[in-house]
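Forum > Structural Biology > Help requests

Title: Can anyone predict the 3D structure of EF-hand domain-containing protein?

Hi all, first post here. I have the sequence for EF-hand domain-containing protein but no way to get a structure on my laptop. I'd be grateful if someone could post the structure tokens.
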Amino acid sequence: MEDHDQEQQKTEIIQSRDLETIKNEQSSVKSLIESILLESTKQVDNKKAQYNKKIKTSRQKELEYLTNVTKPILTSPEQLNIACERINSLLLNHKTILLPACYSLDKLNSGRVTYEQFRLVIRDLLPQMSKEDFFILTKLFEIENSVDYRMIFGENFSDGILQFITPISVLQPDEMILENKLSKSFDKTLQLNHSKYVTIYFRLITFDSYNAYPGHIKLTVSDQTSIYVLSKMIIEETQLATRFVSIFREKVCSHNTLLKPMYSLEYYDYTGTYDKIFPVYTLYYDYSSMDIYDTCPILKCDYYMK
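Reply #1:
Sure, ran it for you. Structure tokens for EF-hand domain-containing protein below:
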């Protein structure tokens, strides 16, 4: 009887040990599975973090590029004027679709939207606007990390982006420094204190065949004068109902003959001299009337005759 009891005790001890071993093995397997799952989760999180980091880095690179490429424009009144004219011409014809889109995103009716919201509006409704122009636009109207779209579109009696256009001072004929007499040792290449001048005859393309047309004018300017400044001088001289004039080499309105606003006369080989007898050139110009004069046939007569 005692032998039987001892055998039974041994059997129970062995079974207990086996059961404990199984439990330990199960616990080890469970820990291993949990460890694998945890490691897998960490890897997924790391991949997400790396992906987000790449996106952030790409965005930062784009912002750095735009900051660098637009800095010369934002710091130069003349270049900024050109950019403002260009951006305004794009916005003007799309205001009726851009403004309602911004209103729909402005849930607080604050007159502002986030940078990303405004970027999506422009990207979807005005894709022809370049990234550089968009960056300039948002920089000019940025308020507390948001964009004031009402000011951009001329709400609240503002002039929109045109408010950032500054007048460019141009030397008048009586302010020009001229050389009356040149000595034999005079070296023109060393005369850095004196400007070279040219005389330009500007003819309105529409009325080129009519020599007595008052829109044909003559200007004497430095050959360093930009095409943009010349266009403003033409507007001032002729009192045209427009904000911008296009100037051409020939009496043909085309991209091949167009003189770009940011370049000077000298850049296009219209070089002057230090003498009083300046070289004479002929250039042509054209323009479109402003919308506010759409109902006036007199101011737009030349436009209708194109």
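The chain has eight helices and seven strands. Residues 2-75 form the longest helix (74 residues).
Shout if anything looks off.
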